[in-house]
Amino acid sequence: MSMEAATVAPRLQISTWVDSDKVARRLRTRSAASFSPRLKDRNMTQVLLPHLPTSKVSNRQRHVALEVSCSYNNFPASTVESGNFHTLDESLVLKNKALAIEPYLNGRCIYLVGMMGSGKTTVGKIMAQALSYSFIDSDSLVEHDVGGTSVAEIFKLYGEGFFRDKETEALRKLSLMHRLVVSTGGGAVVRPVNWKCMKKGISVWLDVPLEALAQRIAAVGTGSRPLLHHGSGDAYRKTYMRLTSLFEERGDSYANANARVSLENIAAKLGYRDVSNLTPTAIVIEALEQIESYLKEEHRHAHITF
Ligand SMILES: Nc1ncnc2c1ncn2[C@@H]1O[C@H](COP(=O)(O)OP(=O)(O)OP(=O)(O)O)[C@@H](O)[C@H]1O
Ligand SMILES: O=C(O)C1=C[C@@H](O)[C@@H](O)[C@H](O)C1
């Protein structure tokens, strides 16, 4: 196994590569036995994996899954990742939502857009898992293209213009692909040419209040986010001010997305006062609902006869 595959493989879930009947027999779980045949046919093995001791998943299986997934999508292994684990209930809801949109989605990619820290990566990995898509981060693709240089270093060494060109190039490549959930860079929405690429798939805006974004980002630091390096004062305030001015420039561009997922709306629906109580899974479920509404509307329009 190459070094690259060896470092990435442990993060992969190999759900589609494990025979669900065999796993069910071995684990003898009630949950496995109660799947309907239709669900079982649809790779419900994903639900079983959280119960599967990691020792039962051989490195060989992980490696094969990674290699096939990457060669199918034609991307370097280091830029492709998979999703997280959930409870059985959450997995079933996610899978059912995914099955509802599958016929309308027809393999088209999903592009997640939104401000830095809005959860595109976190949400994207879970969504990809639910849809049996691959997850890819366009920032990672750019970093790979520039010989493994980090986004922060690319900004420092070559400037933002160079990064934006590379980002457009990455989105062009991605627009030729299918069955990907793409986490786009926070600023990808400002170039109309990027929208041309993203409109080949379905775009989804993760709309998160700026206060929540500033809290999340201040908690982890701004080291990897070059556009937030400026300003003085305490970390939260500085980040909040900078995010506010970026959002003033970009708000209308985010609104170009086909679907909007508002964390404030989800919190209101679920009776929470604060968006910080929302789990990433709850956000993915809402995102799949919004995607479904958009796709059904699109389908309805396509079938109106004049
Ligand atoms: N629903 C959530 N609740 C609380 N924290 C979250 C949630 N979703 C993501 N986070 C946290 O917020 C931070 C940013 O999340 P993530 O990297 O997914 O965002 P992003 O949109 O991909 O960011 P960027 O565009 O800057 O790469 C991470 O520390 C992550 O753990
Ligand atoms: O909001 C932005 O402009 C950026 C977001 C990040 O994802 C990176 O693409 C880069 O740091 C720029």
UniProtKB/TrEMBL annotation:
Which branch of life, at top level? Eukaryota
As for subcellular location, the record says: Plastid, Chloroplast
- Which biological process terms from the Gene Ontology are attached to this UniProt entry? amino acid biosynthetic process; aromatic amino acid family biosynthetic process; chorismate biosynthetic process; shikimate metabolic process
Enzyme Commission designation = 2.7.1.71
Q: Which InterPro entries match?
A: P-loop_NTPase (IPR027417), Shikimate/glucono_kinase (IPR031322), Shikimate_kinase/TSH1 (IPR000623), Shikimate_kinase_CS (IPR023000)
Record keywords: Ribonucleoprotein included?
no
Under catalytic activity, the entry for this protein gives:
shikimate + ATP = 3-phosphoshikimate + ADP + H(+)
Q: Which Gene3D superfamilies does the annotation name? A: P-loop containing nucleotide triphosphate hydrolases (3.40.50.300)
Q: Which keywords annotate this record? A: Amino-acid biosynthesis, Aromatic amino acid biosynthesis, ATP-binding, Chloroplast, Kinase, Magnesium, Metal-binding, Nucleotide-binding, Plastid, Transferase, Transit peptide
**Pathway it acts in?**
Metabolic intermediate biosynthesis; chorismate biosynthesis; chorismate from D-erythrose 4-phosphate and phosphoenolpyruvate: step 5/7
Cofactor(s), by name: Mg(2+)
Q: Which molecular-function annotations from GO does this UniProt entry contain?
A: ATP binding; metal ion binding; shikimate kinase activity
Which Pfam families does the protein's record reference?
A: SKI (PF01202)
One GO cellular component term, please give it.
Answer: chloroplast
Q: Which HAMAP family match?
A: Shikimate_kinase (MF_00109)
Report the function annotation for this chain: Catalyzes the specific phosphorylation of the 3-hydroxyl group of shikimic acid using ATP as a cosubstrate.
Family under the similarity heading:
Belongs to the shikimate kinase family.
Q: What is the protein name given in its UniProt record?
A: shikimate kinase
Origin species, per record, is Malus baccata (Siberian crab apple)
